[in-house]
Amino acid sequence: MRVLLVEDDDRLASALTTALQRHGNVVQRVAQANGCLRLAGENDFVLLDLGLPDMDGMEVLRQLRRASAVPVIVLTARSGERDVLRGLRGGADDYLVKPFRTAELLARMEAVVRRGTRPLPPGTQVVEVGDVRIDLAARRVSVAGEPISLTRREFEVLALLARRPGVVRSREEILDEVWGDPFLSASRSLDVHVACLRAKTGRPELVETLRGTGYRLGVR
């Protein structure tokens, strides 16, 4: 398996590289966020440190998830509950707090691979639900061939749901991804944006509400 190790600590990176190679992996190591975003698509797995020198790891994860479904395990010293929730809701497949044992990391990588990756494969840029066409790369939406004008946040809410069609996304997850705060007190804003999406597309079934849980993209 091709593994991209994103870690700025040279000693830890060297130890992890040796351990991963010993188990048959091909390891590519980078120390900065720009290297991660540039090379993630060429690898089968990403191990991502959050404490990078050029960009916060949570933002790296957010940008990575907009472009790729590659499995990601976060490796970090941040052990707070809020950090763990943000990492998992931001798209990480697992979250491992330093220091950790190499055997545990390898076991978690195997578990992620067994579970499989996200429904949309890397490179998928267009999602269609009935006559609604969502172009994730161009940030355009059309209904029955007619373009629909959405605000930035309306599109980001729809795109988040479209990347995993039929999968329920919690309110906290959407607020974290789009607004940057899973504990946003004024969460009524999310309801307003969903109502606008339904009204503008004229397809109220496009975004389904699961009361007490969250939202998902309708797949009918």
Automatic annotation (TrEMBL):
Response regulatory domain mapped to chain residues: 2-113
Any Pfam family hit: Trans_reg_C
Residue ranges the UniProt entry marks as DNA-binding: 124-219
4-aspartylphosphate: residues carrying this PTM: 49
UniProtKB keywords: DNA-binding, Phosphoprotein, Transcription, Transcription regulation, Two-component regulatory system
Family matches, as Gene3D superfamilies: 3.40.50.2300, 6.10.250.690, Winged helix-like DNA-binding domain superfamily/Winged helix DNA-binding domain
Ranges for domain OmpR/PhoB-type: 124-219
rRNA processing as UniProt keyword: no
Name of the protein: Response regulator transcription factor
The keyword Coiled coil appears for this protein: no
